[in-house]
Amino acid sequence: MYNNETMMQYFEWYLPNDGFWWKRCAAKAEHLARLGISAVWLPPAYKGTSQEDVGYGVYDMYDLGEFDQKGTIRTKYGTKEEYIAAIRAFHEAGIRVFADIVLNHRMGGDELEEVKAVGDSPEDRLQQVDGKQTVRVWSKFTFPGRGGKYSRFTWDHRHFTGTDWDEDSRRTDRIYRFTGKHWAPETDPERGNFDYLMGMNVDMSNRSVKRETEKWLRWYLAQTGVDGLRLDAVKHISFPFYRELLKRLRADGYPDLPAVGEYWSGDPERLLHYLDAVDNEMSLFDVALHYNFYHASQAGADYDLSGILSHTLVSERPDKAVTFVDNHDTQYGQSLESFVADWFKPLAYALILLRQEGVPCVFYSDYYGNPAKNRPLVPNLGKMIRLRRAYAYGDQKDFFDDPHCIGWVRRGDREHPDSGLAVLLSNAGAGVKRMRMGLRFAGERFYDALGVFPEPVLIDADGWGEFRCAENSVSLWVRANAFEDLIVNE
Prior knowledge:
The chain has helices spanning about 20-35, 80-90, 205-225, 240-250, 270-275, 285-300, 315, 345-355, 365-370, 380-390, 480-490, and strands spanning about 5-10, 40, 45-50, 60, 95-100, 105, 110-120, 130-140, 160-165, 175-180, 200, 230, 260, 285, 320-325, 360-365, 395-400, 405-410, 420-425, 430-435, 445-450, 455-460, 465-470, 475-480. By secondary structure, it is α/β, with parallel strands linked by helices.
């Protein structure tokens, strides 16, 4: 990741199925660049089980909206040509593109196969609850609409370890593990073994699968020109798989390919263990920090803000942390619903955008709002993104000395004119805190960038200033020239 990079997850779950998304992306590229976004994470671009699929019900990864399959040529987001045009528009605006890569499972098979399997418990995949039986499963993927273009590889039961659906019994209380197969030994330990997630579970130990997967990824990188990878559901895939795959890619053709993995766990020890297991070949989203935000937003004044960054990836391994407030999975109605309360979102975004540790990822619905779910945009989020790009530089000093009012200062650097700022947060009453900007700021006035407090803060001869914030809110204080610049560019 680059210094002071700001990523945006440029999609959410409830986008309309009108096929215009890639065109909308291209139209917004220049705006996002002016705002200060340096990278975007786009949704899965390949054909899913239907036109309405958000992209995680993967059917054919070679079909980027090019072939008549699953009742549609385009995906929910548009056609292959429009997708590549959107990537080109982002590149022309100076924005890097991260593609969403979903390798764990396949769905929407073309033909049924009879397969011998045993039944494992959904709650403990190491507990076998049924003996050997014959099941009929949708394990054959022949992609008739594509007709072998790009790859003649087809999938059958040999390429999967199991599924949760038998077409004959239609039971939902079993996971069918194909005989001769075993769940991958190095996955998350939740539910005994969390190799299986959904659909037809891809067998990453199969040599043919490994070869075809790497072939596809090289094809995809060459076809689209994307700059980086967002890796879905990594805790469900054998840990050595991505370690070896990323090493091979970087050794042969893609030396600077960045990757960020989604390992969904609020336990930072599991995140750290995974990073060690993959030799730090990727960054991870800081799910532990997200849950701190969520719990703080629910508890209000009962939450100790001085520990908001404790037990997180960004506090333990900041160079590998991609921080976020919410995403498409935490939205209302989704499987990992844990949406941060509206009042706390500005505080949370200040904590990821205006500090030096980690790479922040802004959620599309927080910036634009979400009419489909009647959700508002986060106030002043655009201003915080601009502040990060222009002024959030230099040494950082924390003042996390109160359970309800915390703050920090950034002391600027010579490379960024007028850089340096002060941030104060409260989860209870109005807050006041003395914070030291440093001697070089002595005599300067700092102004509230959010416009709540009209009177400036004067930095005294020893470099200290007394900063304020309103109850349950955040205040952002910048130098006089920076404040004038923000007003001009509002």
